[in-house]
Amino acid sequence: MDYKVKDVGLAPQGRLQIEWAEAHMPVLLKIRERFSRTRPLEGVRVGACLHVTKETAVLVRTLVAGGAEVYLAASNPLSTQDDVAAALAEEGVHVFAWRGMTTREYYEAIGRVIAAQPEVTMDDGGDLTALVHKLHYGEGGEDVDTVREVAGGARPRVIGGTEETTTGVLRLRAMAREGKLLYPVIAVNESRTKYLFDNRYGTGQSTFDGIMRATNLLIAGKTVVVAGYGWVGRGIAMRARGLGARVVVVEVDPIKALEAYYDGFYVTSMEEAASVGDVFITATGNINVIRGEHIAKMKDGAVLANAGHFNVEISIPDLERLATSKRAIRPGVDEYRLADGRRVYLLSEGRLVNLAAAEGHPSEVMDMSFSNQALAVEYLLKKRGELAPGVYRLPLRIDRRIARLKLEALGVRIERLTDEQRAYLRSWRAGT
Ligand code: NAD
Ligand code: ADE
Question: Domain check: are 186 and 218 in the same one?
Answer without folding.
Answer: no
